[in-house]
Amino acid sequence: MAEVKIAPSVLASNFGKLAEEIQAVDQAGCDWIHLDVMDGHFVPNLTFGPPIIQSVRSATDKVFDAHLMVSNPDRLLEAYQKAGADIITVHAEVCDHLDRTLAQIRELGCRAGVSLNPHTSEDCLHYVLDRVDLVLVMSVNPGFGGQSFIPTVVDKIARIRDVLGGRDVDIEVDGGITPETAPSVVAAGATALVAGSAVFKGGSIEAYRDNIQAIRNAVKDQR
Ligand code: DX5
Ligand code: ZN
């Protein structure tokens, strides 16, 4: 089985030197770069959009995993693709036409992701199974880094794995992931882990490498 992907969330990085931070986690051995886009509307917080993503695209060849916590994702899908996003994930809660939005993401040549807040049922996935490349399971309420993992999502991940059947769809888990919480979500079927605070602590490439390795070690026997 493929190794679990580790996706550091730049939300926990030093935004004053974002390109260097991305290069540091690249050299520290991450798989994807998780980009938390927040609009101050769907979630209370604000971060960045396509111009910032474009400005750091040349810092790494790693997959850019864009998590759009925005109320109207359809308006800017092409801008995120042009800025360099490889995966574009939208929230089911804000998509009136989820089937169409996911199809548009694929038409742009990106992998299409759908994210579910902790309270959101996985039922909608039944109807978009052939449109989706990734399910992003929120294990905190989105908007902020450094929150505590919500354990009820573990059973939800197992249910999502059942819904997906044998399809080649990643299940990525986001929020409160540490070496302590990661094993249960991987055992339930997660194939990718977002980690912000747990990766960007220590402030150096060496620390980031140790932090990423600690998560990898914690999950290596869980799949
Ligand atoms: C929360 C974001 C997460 C966040 C995770 O709204 O989607 O990606 O940065 O941060 P940690 O790993 O610190 O919970
Ligand atoms: Zn995220």
pLDDT averaged residue by residue: 98
Instruction: Please give the CATH class.
Output: Alpha Beta
Total number of strands: 8
Strand ordering within the main sheet? 1-8-7-6-5-4-3-2
**Beta-sheet strand percentage?**
15-25%
Name of the CATH homologous superfamily: Aldolase class I
Looking at CATH, which topology would you report? TIM Barrel
Bound molecules: D-xylitol-5-phosphate, zinc ion
Structure description:
By secondary structure, this protein is α/β, with parallel strands linked by helices. The chain has helices spanning 18-27, 50-56, 77-83, 98-107, 153-164, 182-188, 205-219, and strands at 5-8, 32-38, 63-69, 87-91, 111-116, 134-138, 170-174, 192-195. It has an eight-stranded parallel beta sheet with strand order 1-8-7-6-5-4-3-2. Helix 2 packs parallel to helix 3. The termini are close together. Residues 9, 11-12, 34, 36, 67, 140, 142-147, 174-177, 194-198 line the site of D-xylitol-5-phosphate (DX5).
Write the layout of secondary structure elements.
Blueprint: E1 5-8, H1 18-27, E2 32-38, H2 50-56, E3 63-69, H3 77-83, E4 87-91, H4 98-107, E5 111-116, E6 134-138, H5 153-164, E7 170-174, H6 182-188, E8 192-195, H7 205-219
Parallel strand pairs: 1-8, 2-3, 3-4, 4-5, 5-6, 6-7, 7-8
Bound molecules: D-xylitol-5-phosphate (DX5) and zinc ion.
